């Protein structure tokens, strides 16, 4: 469980992070962490989906929800394909 974190503790933590990484590299670090978390979320979701598919079938067919927006690797691959198509067209 998380304890109550005071403003001073947050400021000290931010100060240590700035000292360790430097102010210029912080945007790159946060971008990388965000990307890693997105990939982790996608992988965990796919594992859960695999577990759901492994369950025995019920008498009623299960209705699938509408297609989810692309996340993580799928977005990166789709953007890469769009760039490649644009380069080929020009």
Helix fraction, binned, reads 55-70%
- Note the run of SSEs as H and E: HHH
Total DSSP helices: 3
How far apart are the first and last residues' alpha carbons, in Å? 55 Å
Structural class of the secondary structure composition? Answer: mainly alpha
> Could you describe the largest sheet, including whether it forms a barrel?
none
Indicate the low-confidence ranges by residue numbers: none
Q: Quick check: average pLDDT? A: 80
What's the gyration radius in Å? 21 Å
Number of strands: 0
Looking at how many chains there are and whether they match, the oligomeric state comes to: single chain
**Relative strand content:** under 5%
Overall spatial form: flat
Protein name: Sec-independent protein translocase protein TatA
InterPro entries: TatA/B/E (IPR003369), TatA/E (IPR006312)
Function: Part of the twin-arginine translocation (Tat) system that transports large folded proteins containing a characteristic twin-arginine motif in their signal peptide across membranes. TatA could form the protein-conducting channel of the Tat system.
Family: Belongs to the TatA/E family.
